[in-house]
Amino acid sequence: MNAKILKHAVTSFFSAMKTKNIVPIEHIVDSTKLLENKVALITGGSGGIGFSIAKSFVESGAKVIITATDVEKLKLCTEKLGDSARWVQLDLRNLSNLDEKVRTAIECFGKIDILVNSAGVHSVKSMTDYFNTTQEEFDNIMQVNLKGTYFISQKIAEYFVKNKVKGHILNISSSTGGEPGWSAYRLSKHAIENLTLGLAQKLSVYGIVVNCIAPGSTATNLLSYKDGDSIATTDNVIGRMVMPDEIASYAKILVSDLGNMVLGETIYISGGRGKFDIR
Q1: Domain ranges in the chain?
Q2: Please, where are the H alpha helices in the chain?
Q3: Strand order in the sheet with 168-172
Q4: How far apart are CA 61 and CA 52, in angstroms?
Q5: What's the pLDDT score for residue 99?
Q6: Which CDD domains does the entry link to (predicted)?
């Protein structure tokens, strides 16, 4: 090689080393270590989807703090999850003590790296009967599903920024958020997807990753499903219900380092419902 060309190549290499921040590529292959040393706060963690996510996180090396309103159910779920789990009672209909609740959650394991907003409520009447939806039903759904998600995300994001935590926030929406919004529930879930996009834009500059999962009809206790029941359905073109474990698997990826390049997305796990199969 010509000496002048060689000298130029060497000079260019060392110049690049000085001016570029070189980030090594990491290949994570062991799913049992995907969330190793991470701590996750999961609202609605005693529910079917929330509990499945908590279980998946623990199996992947994380510690979890689950929240809900029912203390006895929280205790039972925490016992099932084992030593890597703690619980904090939290009612998103009352945000007056939110600061205290967040502090309590942080104290459980000394930090929080992940927030999963899985808490949510709905009303059968408001989902099926527009003309008889009451203001009380509307306010309750919006309070928990939207306002609660908004302000606990705000508190955790403040904690992330203050402590320089490159954390993850994952919102749980619904495939109905992609459908015409004449019900309070659908409106709340559509808003969650837009909030996800907004928070991703606002928080990505701090290294905080925000995404969303929108499940279709899921075989959980909320819909009176139990082990052994048929999961056949006409709710989607696939012809079966979504399983909580499917949602948990995607959740695990999105809050791990594998999800760091996914920003502001809503992943529909719905068999097409809410995307091209609109009811």
Answers
A1: 29-269
A2: 3-19, 48-59, 71-81, 98-109, 124-128, 135-142, 149-162, 184-203, 244-254
A3: 85-89, 63-68, 39-43, 114-117, 168-172, 209-215, 266-269
A4: 15
A5: 97
A6: SDR_c (cd05233)
When computed from its CA atoms, the radius of gyration of the chain, rounded to whole angstroms, is 21
- The pair of three-digit structure tokens given for residue 150, joined into one six-digit string: 């908004």
Stretches in the chain below the pLDDT threshold 50: 19
pLDDT at 122: 85
Alpha-carbon distances, residue 34 vs 212, 234, 245, 258, 261 (angstroms): 19, 35, 16, 9, 16
pLDDT in tens, 207-256: 999 999 999 988 886 555 666 678 898 889 899 989 999 999 999 999 99
Q: Looking at 130, 150, 185, 268, which residue is catalytic?
A: 185
Whether 206 sits among the annotated catalytic residues: the reply is no
Architecture of 29-269 per CATH? 3-Layer(aba) Sandwich (3.40)
| CA-to-CA separations, 84 to 79, 118, 134, 234, in angstroms, rounded | 10, 19, 41, 38
